Amino acid sequence: MKKTKDEINAFLGKDTEFEGKFSFTGAVRVDGKISGEIFSNGTLIVGESAAIKAQIHVADIIISGEVHGDILAEKKIEITVPGKLFGNIKTPKLVLEEGVIFEGNCKMKNLKQETEKDTALSPKKTEGLSVLK
Q1: Nearest 5°: phi and psi at 118?
Q2: How far apart, in whole angstroms, are the C-alpha atoms of residue 116 and residue 119?
Q3: Which of 132, 59, 61, 67 is nearest to 101 (CA)?
Q4: d(Cα 24, Cα 29) in Å, to the nearest integer?
Q5: What is the pLDDT of residues 9-54, one digit of tens each?
Q6: DSSP states of 39-73
Q7: pLDDT tier, 6 (very low <50, low <70, confident <90, very high otherwise)
Q8: pLDDT by residue (tens digit) across 93-131?
Q9: Is the CB of residue 56 less than 8 Å from the CB of residue 41?
Q10: Distance CA 96, CA 79 (A)
C-alpha cells in the first residue's frame, strides 16, 4: 500500500510527552504534550487534548488543541473549535472557525515571494565588497 501525502504516518497519543527538536515528513497527529521546536514540510495535526509549547515551522497546521508559540506555515493554518493559539503567525492562508481563541499577531503574505525578495535584497559578497543586488 502506497502512502499518500495526507496520510498520518505518526501519532503521539494523549499520554505522550516530547521535549526537544521534532521534525517529520508527511502528516503527524499530536494528542499529547510537546515542548521545543517543530519542523516539517508536511502537516501537523494538533488534537483536542494536545498541549504544545513550541516554535513551529510547517507547511500546514490544523489546531484543535492548545498551542503556545510562534508559527510559520508555508501553506495554511487552520484552527477549529475548541482550538486555542497564543502566539504570532505567518501564513498565506488562515482559517478560523467561529468560537476558537487566537491571541497574537498575524502576517499574511505569500511566503515564497517574501523569501525570494529577501534573498534578492541580501548583500552578496564579491571579493571583499558587499553589493546589493
Answers
A1: -60, -40
A2: 5
A3: 67
A4: 11
A5: 888 899 999 999 999 999 999 999 999 999 999 999 999 999 999 9
A6: EESSEEEE-TT-EEEEEEEEEEEEESSEEES-EEE
A7: low
A8: 999 999 999 999 999 976 665 555 554 444 444 333 333
A9: no
A10: 5
Q: Would you call 30 helix, strand, or coil by DSSP? A: strand
Q: Determine the Cα–Cα distance for residues 17 and 21; give it in Å rounded to an integer.
A: 13
DSSP tag of 3:
P
Cell of 19: 521535549
pLDDT, position 113: 58
DSSP-assigned letter for residue 17: E
Predicted TM-score (pTM) of this structure: 0.78
Task: Read off the C-alpha cell for 111.
Answer: 511566503
Question: What are the CB-based long-range contacts (under 8 Å, 24+) for 70-75?
Answer: 70/104, 72/111, 74/41, 74/111, 74/112
| b/e burial code for range 5-27 (CB count within 10 A of at least 16 → b) | eeeeeeebeeeeebeeebebebb
How confident is the model at residue 114, as a pLDDT? 56
Dihedral pair phi/psi, residue 26, rounded to 5°: 80, -140
